[in-house]
């Protein structure tokens, strides 16, 4: 079989796949249900997500430190971060590890959210299994073979690979393409270490006979298909790299250089939707202090340098970053001055469009699971829901299908700036409640502004996504409106209030103490 024949037959086979009922990672989906929600509109959104995977299970308690809680120091007598060394922020109880000046700076400039207590039910403490759960967007009892972003990209570009877009959907810097970017159709991205080498490999096109009908032949065809994709994109990536630039300095470490390359590709006009970088070494079972500090500095500095680079080039408004690590560490230090595998942990979302702040209750060392580890506050897919729904403009029902369930989005994106009709967003505004925090059994006022008369819903949810109040519902005139809401008998913690106007919605968070 000649190369051109293989390509032709591959396309025909792909057309056949597209005609069968959709199954997203083992989730049966009624034929056409996802495609009925205007995937072409999703494709028009040009927002970018950059994922930093931190392999090994980051110790969130020493990254974002509860420095006023004596129980933290009781459990970590030798590795707890002393209060005087913690980088303080506008939060009375939490602060950053002393090496995390970069993220502290992002937080203080309104470009970083710390999401506390992120995890999932029946947490798995195996690195491999828990990574798969995070990458696929599954529950602990599910085994999926496609990634949450791979499924989204497949649904967004239903004609792939019949039609290849000008730019790769996703770019991973180094390594083998992540499970996060796998779909039923295979890879939904490319891996890249050096654009020049990638370009030269892409030019080395061969046209030779391909064995078929054997396991070897199938593997050969699979690898050949990947190469075809690489050939298509090698010139585009090389052009973007040569046209791009970096403004500012980066550390010499691997993660900083990965993000430097991502920034240069974005600067050069590469329109990929997802970039993925990574850093290993977070499995800190022994002598944790020095090594963990170095890792946190690498992540923190690289994130700040990346955002500053984009900001200096006027490119930061459509880029959001997310840290991701498979689990946190145990609350107690072990006998080797380290920490073992735990459960819930903090994750960071950063970038100019981020609704900056501390989300979620502080770690509660008295409320633990049967192993004595922290109980999660937020299901990790609540972050994915927010990114899909309010960053990539995927309709709510489709997000539910992609994630095999409804997970209330956390209010991490400052506004739905990527909406299909941005002018509609400017017609209303949701104000921060006052007072905030709200005293237990107290009252607060929710405010919003309408640019024109419109039907409105203003709803309040608790941290689990349960609706606890309808603050406003009905048609309101243009202008500023204030609605009092009582939190009598409400449990302390984070709450969300969401304003819905003509199919658009904005969410903010409030705290009850």
Summary, kept brief:
Helix content is 31%, strand content 23%. It contains 14 helices and 23 strands.
Supply the key terms.
513 residues, four-stranded antiparallel β-sheet, disordered N terminus
Share of helix, binned: 25-40%
Rg from alpha-carbon coordinates: 24 Å
Distance between the termini: 70 Å
Summarize model confidence as the mean pLDDT.
Answer: 83
> What fraction of the residues are assigned to beta strands by DSSP?
15-25%
Structural class: alpha/beta
Largest sheet: 9 strands, mixed
Please count the beta strands (DSSP E, at least 2 residues each).
23
Poorly predicted tracts of residues = 1-36, 416-425
Anisotropy-based shape: globular
Q: Please count the helical segments.
A: 14
What features would you describe in this structure?
The chain is α/β, with parallel strands linked by helices and 513 residues long. The protein contains 14 helices and 23 strands. The strands form 6 sheets. Strands 3, 7, 8, 11, 12, 13, 14, 15 and 16 form a 9-stranded mixed β-sheet that branches. Strands 20-19-22-23 form a 4-stranded antiparallel β-sheet, with no helix packed on it. A 3-stranded antiparallel β-sheet has the order 4-6-5. Strand 5 and strand 6 form a beta hairpin. Helix 9 crosses helix 10. The protein starts with a helix and ends with a strand.
């Amino acid at each position: 079989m000649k190369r051109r024949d293989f390509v032709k037959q591959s396309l025909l086979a792909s057309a056949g796949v597209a005609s069968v009922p959709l199954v997203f990672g083992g989730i049966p989906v009624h034929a056409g249900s996802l495609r009925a929600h205007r995937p072409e509109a999703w494709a028009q959104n040009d927002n970018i997500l950059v994922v930093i995977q931190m392999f090994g299970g980051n110790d969130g308690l020493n990254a974002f430190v509860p420095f006023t809680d004596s129980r933290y120091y009781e459990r970590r007598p030798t590795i707890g971060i002393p209060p005087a060394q913690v980088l303080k922020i506008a939060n009375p109880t939490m602060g950053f590890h002393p090496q995390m000046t970069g993220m502290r700076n992002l937080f203080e400039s309104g470009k970083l959210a710390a999401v506390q207590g992120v995890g999932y039910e029946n947490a798995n403490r195996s690195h491999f299994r828990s990574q798969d759960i995070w990458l696929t967007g599954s529950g602990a009892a599910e085994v999926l073979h496609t990634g949450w972003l791979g499924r989204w990209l497949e649904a967004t570009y239903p004609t792939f690979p019949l039609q290849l877009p000008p730019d790769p959907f996703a770019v991973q810097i180094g390594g083998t393409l992540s499970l996060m970017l796998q779909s039923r159709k295979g890879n939904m991205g490319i891996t890249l270490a050096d654009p020049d080498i990638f370009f030269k490999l892409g030019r080395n096109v061969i046209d030779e006979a391909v064995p078929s009908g054997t396991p070897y032949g199938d593997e050969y065809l699979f690898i050949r298909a990947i190469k075809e994709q690489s050939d298509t994109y090698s010139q585009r990536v090389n052009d973007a790299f040569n046209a791009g630039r970096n403004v500012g300095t980066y550390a010499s470490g691997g993660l900083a250089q990965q993000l430097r390359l991502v920034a240069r590709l974005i600067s050069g006009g590469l329109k990929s939707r997802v970039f993925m970088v990574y850093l290993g070494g977070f499995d800190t079972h022994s002598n944790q202090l020095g090594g963990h500090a170095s890792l946190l500095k690498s992540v923190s500095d690289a994130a700040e340098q990346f955002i500053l680079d984009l900001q200096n080039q006027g490119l930061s408004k459509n880029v959001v970053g997310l840290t991701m690590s498979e689990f946190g560490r145990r609350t107690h230090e072990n006998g080797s001055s380290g920490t073992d595998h735990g459960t819930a942990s903090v994750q960071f979302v950063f970038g100019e469009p981020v609704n900056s702040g501390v989300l979620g209750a502080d770690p509660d060392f008295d409320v633990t699971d049967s192993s004595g580890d922290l109980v999660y506050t937020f299901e990790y897919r609540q972050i994915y829901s927010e990114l899909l729904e309010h960053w990539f403009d995927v309709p709510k029902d489709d997000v539910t299908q992609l994630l095999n369930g409804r997970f209330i989005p956390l209010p991490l994106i400052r506004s739905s700036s990527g909406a299909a009709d941005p002018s509609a967003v400017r017609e209303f505004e949701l104000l921060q409640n006052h007072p905030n925090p709200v005293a237990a059994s107290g009252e607060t006022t929710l405010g919003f502004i309408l640019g024109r008369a419109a039907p409105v819903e203003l709803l309040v949810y608790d941290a689990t996504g349960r609706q606890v109040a309808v603050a406003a519902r009905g048609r309101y005139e243009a202008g500023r409106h204030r609605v009092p809401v009582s939190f009598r008998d409400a449990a302390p913690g984070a709450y969300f209030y969401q304003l819905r106007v003509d199919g658009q919605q904005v969410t903010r968070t409030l705290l009850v103490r």
